[in-house]
Amino acid sequence: MSLSAIAKPRTISKLFLAIEQSEGVGARVRRSVGTARLRNFSPFLMLDHFFVSGKAGFPDHPHRGQETITYLLHGQVDHEDFTGSTGTIDEGDLQFMTAGRGIMHAEMPRPQKDGSPVMGLQLWVDLPEKLKDVEPRYRDLRKVEIPIVKPSDKVEIKVISGESYGVKSVQDLAYTPVWMIDATIKPGGSMSQPLPEGWNAFAYVLDGELLCGTTKAQQYNNIVFDRDGDGVEFCVPAEYEKDAHVVVVAGQVLDQQVVQYGPFVAVSKEKIYEAVMDFQNAANGFERARSWESKIAKMIR
């Protein structure tokens, strides 16, 4: 099959608006995975489109049993954890964080001089059961490392993870196989994106509006696909007034139960109980949690 042609587009199973809500300290998010509308869409646990202005953010908090993928669309975000890891994600960069057996960290957007909100996406991905006890790690993907393909003068695609129009991404950024494709489509443009067979997939519209088949999707809509078909297709009719910006995400389905309690993700209630007790007792991966405080979160304390 040509990577620029779709024999059978996937069927849309649902389309809905991501509603804005509060999260962290002073932050606002539009959550489109991890709500009653779309929960535990394996391997995906959560997708937040976050907006942070002023002295606000996501101060010290734990994780266990999942990976997070942060894609920064505007601004800068500082991060710090109890292993001593620190750094900054700049506009257009991504960070893949594996919580594994346990980590405690802080993610603090930097206030912008022009007062504009720091904006990005954070995707939570489940870890296979056999990898839930791995040591925490980070993998950064800088903007300059992301391949770009332009199948026409009206379409630009950033191949963050996976493959599009024969262009492959940087490999081995996450334990759980995930594709992430960022596309901007001008009025009069169209694109086809093949997806791995059997993977779950959705598309989130960051800006503008587009057609997926005959279905119209607008800004902040999540388009959820069935597993039928071999890919997805989008177009922006010539009469539309602005570009559409859409992120397509697909992931390998994990054959395991999902039990989640806040930032802890396991395969049973017993494992969740262990995670809570380990965090409270500073044990089994959380030994450094009791005495650790981040420096970057003090700005809002």
Automatic annotation (TrEMBL):
Q: Which domain of life is it from?
A: Eukaryota
**Residues that hold Fe cation according to the record:** 61, 63, 105, 107
Every copy of the Pirin N-terminal domain together lies at 27-125
Q: Which GO terms describe its molecular function?
A: metal ion binding
Q: Which InterPro entries does this one have?
A: Pirin, Pirin_C_dom, Pirin_N_dom, RmlC-like_jellyroll, RmlC_Cupin_sf
Known CDD domains for this protein? cupin_pirin_C, cupin_pirin_N
Domain named Pirin C-terminal: which ranges? 181-284
Q: How is the cofactor bound?
A: Binds 1 Fe cation per subunit.
Query: What cofactor is needed?
Result: Fe cation
**Assigned keywords, A-Z:** Iron, Metal-binding
Q: Which family does it belong to?
A: Belongs to the pirin family.
Q: What's the name of the protein?
A: RmlC-like cupin domain-containing protein
> What does UniProt list as this organism's lineage?
Eukaryota, Fungi, Dikarya, Ascomycota, Saccharomycotina
